[in-house]
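== Folding task for one protein ==

=== Format: two labelled lines per protein ===

==== Paired sequence and structure tokens ====
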Amino acid sequence: MQQNNQETLLRVEHLCQYFKGLKAVDDVSFDIKRGEVFGLVGESGCGKTTTGRSIIKIYDITSGSIYFKDQRICAGTRSYEDAIRNARREMRQLKKTETDPAVIAQKRAALNQVIAENRRQIRSARFDHQHSDAEYAKRLVAKLNKEYQQAVANCTSDEELARLKAKYKNDLRVAKKTKLITKIQMIFQDPIASLNPRMTVREIISEGLVINGIKDQAYIDEQVYRILELVGLTREHASRYPHEFSGGQRQRIGIARSVIMHPDLLIADEPISALDVSIQAQIINLLNELRDELGLTIMFIAHDLSVVKYFSDRIGVMYFGKMVELASSDELFAHPLHPYTKSLLSAIPLPDPHAEKRRQRVSYNKLEAHDYSQEGPTMREVKPGHFVYCNSAEEAAYKKELGL
């Protein structure tokens, strides 16, 4: 699911997130290009928020891999453990199904190789999941040391060398504490519950900088004031507490808290659903401005399809933990293929009472819409850049519908 004309910033491969057997997210794969807005839509409970929280490591994923800036930051082991259990089960059945000792020995050796390979994958997954931040910090320190050595070689005075050493000491402390996951920030759905009521706005916004090892209070205050003005608030707001603000202002504080960390990826988890309609437009426009000014990449999770169409470059549609369709915004709205996508689009209210009267709502019943008795569905590229969760018969029907 990749386009070659842009750098892939985030890659999600076969993500599974289970809670006590409940498949909240099941085998979801997609990627996000640098600089784009990727929309994720679906009804409540379909797994949108869980997907976002899994990416930012609020949850330890059950299975699959998540790559950020070409480094695996999340990895689950369930699929490898299942493969080992299946291999052992087959091994126990060998003597019941085979009588030739040579064949038994050959199959046993092959199964042992499967077990050994999956054990290696488990070790690799656990290492990457636990140490991705430490490995990133090591690379930052190595890069900083190289730059410092070059700068020292070009020093022309003791005074300049002293300033350089002081700066290097501070930068080294920050580099050692920097985590790769902090390059992904999240805007939460509830602007009230996501802010600590006992902290001032200054403390809330600057918390990430302090955790990252920055101690220069003047620098912290300067960054806080800059970000406050960037999101449409004022310096005077820094000394106030969250309860003194409206819902829209609180969401701006949440956005400021995320943006101050200079993230490469911003996960906006339904950032406007708890706000008044008049405020929703302001927040969307603010995110658009920040995207252009700061070069942000945004994963936008929402219910409102009209907003997603306006704001997103590509859209993924989720249903019961599965990604059922993925395409560019224009393509998805012009040529929806999966029955669930058609059902979602038919539910968008229209600002025209006459058109609203004539509108035909499409209902979706999974058992009636699909026949998977002979062949199960997989994610398939029906048209370049347009992916649908379907089997071969449905794929042929979709291509015919598109005139391909």
Notes: Residues 166 and 172 are 10 Å apart (CA to CA). The chain has a mean pLDDT of 91. The radius of gyration is 25 Å.
